[in-house]
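Fold it.
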Amino acid sequence: MSYFDHDGCQLHYEEYGKGAPVLLVHGLGSSTRDWEYQIPELAAHYRVVAIDIRGHGRSDKPRERYSIAVFAEDVAALIEHLGLEKVHLVGISMGGMIGFQLGVERPELLESLCIVNSGPEVKAKSPRDFLEIVKRWSLSRLLSLDAIAKGLGRLLFPKPEQAELRRKIEERWPLNDKRAYLASLDAIIGWGVRERLTRITCPTLVISADRDYTPIAQKEAYVKEMPNARLLVIEDSRHATPLDQPQRFNSSLLAFLEEVEQTAPTALNKDQHAC
């Protein structure tokens, strides 16, 4: 375990392997532990760095308002702390939002970007969107972390053979600090950088589960707005693709990273689907 200080906050990170740096950024209520199926395979080829975002895991949980911009500044500070010129950043859900934020604010730090089940904004576009956001905000405050964990486990891993994955969610989610969890949720709601996506010129792979919370069409739309991005759909997967489809996810990510490493920056072929 390693730590560094940024802006008065002690942040936890882990390092594995050698080679070009790959930085893993987890989602809301998660931690470095949820990359357990990726780290061993990635570390066989790359220098893997995984961070606990402030308010999560082993990092400090300051009693303050959080924002995606602050989370991105923490990630940038880690890159600079380790003396890395550029990284391949992989972010899932909230981690993908952090990746987008870093991409528009500090594009010089990114060799490539992999966005998993995420988007460049969380804004209500319709009455239905507004109601869904209010519902999530309200239930997160009314329910205990144990209750949220059980609900998430059933939602993310509904198959009988996914009992072990449900157990992990039910075990890990209640370890969150409720105040920090809510502050992180508040940081997400209303955030957006979609109007600045053209600033992200590095090779970008957007991975979407076919059964993610948001439809594939939404990812297709924003991918078209990015100058060097493509979409990959992984079937029979929900929001936690690195956990429910680790082999497909890992092979797709490794192929993308190898392509970026071996070729000069060029426009990637868009809209690739995987079975």
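The mean pLDDT is 94.
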